[in-house]
Design brief:
The chain is α+β, with helices and mostly antiparallel strands. It has 20 helices and 14 strands. Helix content is about 45%, strand content about 15%. Strands 1, 2, 3, 4, 5, 8, 9 and 12 form an 8-stranded mixed sheet that branches. A two-stranded antiparallel sheet has the order 6-7. It has a two-stranded antiparallel sheet with strand order 10-11. α1 runs parallel beside α4, α13 runs antiparallel to α14 and α16 packs parallel to α19. The longest helix is centred in the middle third of the chain and has 31 residues. The radius of gyration is 33 Å and the shape is extended. The protein starts with a helix and ends with a helix.
């Protein structure tokens, strides 16, 4: 948690204190750690040292902001810090600091006690009607605990404490300078923290397990009937999932439109011809409009799970993050004059370098020589191997290598001045980070294949050279035999084991089969490689077991290799 705050959020805190709005949006699959990243684990009462280490981005940011506020007040500045904590469920905006009451209701005036306030609930949040003034860190901790207790939560198949709606925590800061003079100025900024509900599939979260049909008919006779109130109550979890996914879909549409506008603007398309951004599709995007397309500095944090069964959702999350990273906001009018001048100068240098590169660079054909190993007569990895040298022609750009290096440095400096990355590690190119992190790794950072060492339909002849693969194949073929426990020591015939958990009896049988193969080779009765011979034998066993008993084949193997 401290590393995430230092690398990602602290720079935005400085922007917020200097008068620029900021936002952090946490996006990912359900149960991937979004709420933990934003708020940390649930705590009540006095915080311990361990609790401070596990605090999320929101309490850490508020602690640093309050330190700055106390310092300003000691210097005589008038500072007002307030917070809002709301939950978005469909078109309904609820105030978590007021026991989940719908924002805008129970107010005197035009929308008193009517559901029409759902259409303007986000405006009450932006106008400051849901704010609570903060004077100390203890008050803030109490507000966070009070809001956390009012959240919609329910247990699903993927998360025991799943948040069933989008939550947004907003810090508002007002600093008044020169209070004694007539030209007193007020500096205002907001910090949005959006903990989005997790995207989920009904087939995985099982939230539809409790749903029931309005009418149950068996054999032409009605067995039971539910009222519409009971029917909707059973579908409550499904409604929550639909509202969460609808808000996330609207957010994706907004990000895609912003990305398209940014790309078209760089191509020189006039402003009036840029595509429309659909902020009005959901309350979530209306509330975060300043963070997504306004003047705020925005950070998107994506969380994924390491479970291989959710690889598709993790890949979609990373693609969303990549799209967000390509969105650049326009330069603001209140930007410092020195930064604006430096950016203009860098832009001129970039254009000059690009012109030089276009003039100097040329395509050149180069021939790469590499050693290749191949088999004779297409034996597919078996038999005699030959080595040959292959010449591969490639086309490369040459002539402007030095200018390319200067261009990369200027682009990196331009990104730093625009606030798109920090001066150290944050925002570094992924390829350079991967090379640094995987330096010295034998696998090149790709990791180990969890399927390696297991017998499957895709196992090749060369894989049987590994004793563990052959042992796994023997267990797959003979573990259900009645004599498997006596011959191999099999105790978990119905369980798929890891390669280090396979009983020693199967490894002993694999070694015995290799010794038998070696004897056959010495006698001149076997000309195939060991891997090819074992692959053919396992394939023959699998085909024969469709018509014959496995026990007979096991008895023959025991006699052949002397396993009894």
């Amino acid at each position: 948690q401290p590393q995430v705050y230092e690398a990602a959020a602290r720079r935005l805190v400085m922007e917020f204190l200097n008068g620029t709005s900021a936002s952090i949006i946490c996006y990912g699959q359900t149960a991937s750690g979004k709420t933990h990243t934003m708020f940390g684990p649930p705590t009540t009462g006095q915080l311990t040292v361990a609790d401070h280490q596990m605090q999320g981005l929101v309490p850490r940011t508020c602690a640093e902001v309050l330190q700055a506020v106390d310092h300003w007040r000691s210097r005589g500045l008038e500072v007002r810090l307030s917070a809002s904590y709301v939950e978005l469920f469909g078109s309904e905006v609820s105030d978590l600091l007021r026991e989940g009451r719908v924002v805008g209701q129970h107010r005197e005036g035009r929308y008193s006690a009517v559901r029409a306030t759902d259409r303007v609930g986000h405006r009450y949040v932006l106008d400051g009607h849901t704010e609570w003034h903060i004077q100390s860190l203890e008050e803030l901790q109490e507000l966070l605990e009070h809001g956390d207790a009012a959240k919609r939560r329910a247990a699903t198949a993927m998360n025991e404490r799943s948040t069933r709606a989008h939550t947004v925590f907003v810090l508002s800061l007002q600093v008044r300078k020169d209070m004694d003079s007539a030209d007193a100025t007020i500096r205002q900024s907001r910090f949005y923290f959006a903990d989005l509900g997790g995207s989920e599939q009904l087939s995985k979260s099982k939230v539809d397990a409790a749903t029931k049909a309005p009418v149950l008919v068996v054999g032409g006779e009605e067995q039971s009937r539910l009222t519409w109130q009971e029917y909707n109550l059973h579908r409550q979890r499904v409604y929550e999932t639909l509202n969460i996914n609808k808000g996330l879909f609207s957010l994706k549409r907004v990000i895609e439109a912003l990305h398209q506008r940014c790309r078209m603007a760089q191509e020189g398309v006039p402003t009036h011809a840029l595509p429309y951004v659909p902020y009005q599709d959901s309350k979530l995007t209306m509330l975060l409009q300043e963070a997504l397309g306004g003047s705020a500095r925005t950070l998107i944090i994506t969380t994924v799970t390491m479970d291989p069964s959710h690889a598709e959702e993790s890949l979609q999350t990373l693609r969303f993050a990549e799209t967000c990273a390509q969105v650049q906001k326009r330069r603001e009018a209140d930007q410092a004059a020195s930064i604006t001048l430096a950016l203009d100068k860098i832009e001129q240098e970039i254009q000059a370098l690009q012109a030089d590169i276009a003039q100097k660079e040329r395509w050149e054909t180069r021939f790469l020589r590499r050693q290749d190993r191949d088999t004779v007569a297409g034996a597919f990895g078996e038999g005699m191997m030959v080595e040959r040298t292959e010449v591969v022609p490639t086309s490369v750009l040459v002539g402007a290598e030095a200018e390319r290096e200067q261009l990369e440095a200027l682009l990196e400096r331009q990104a730093e001045l625009k606030g798109l990355c920090s001066m150290v590690d944050f925002g570094k190119d992924y390829r350079s980070m991967r090379l640094q992190d995987t330096k010295g790794a034998t696998d090149g950072g790709r990791g180990e294949d969890f399927r390696a060492g297991h017998f499957s339909a895709r196992t090749k002849a060369k894989d049987f050279e590994d004793e563990a693969v052959l042992a796994d194949a023997l267990r797959f073929l003979f573990r259900s035999c009645k004599d498997a426990e006596r011959v191999f020591g099999e105790l978990k015939a119905r369980t798929r084991l890891q390669r280090n958990e396979i009983p020693e009896g199967y490894h002993k049988a694999a070694r015995a089969m290799r010794e038998h193969w070696e004897d056959q080779v010495e006698k001149g009765q076997e000309h195939r490689s060991f891997g090819k011979a074992m692959l053919d034998r396992c394939t023959a066993w699998r085909g024969a077991f469709k018509h014959t008993s496995r026990d007979a084949a096991l008895s023959k193997l025991v006699q052949e290799c002397g396993l009894a």
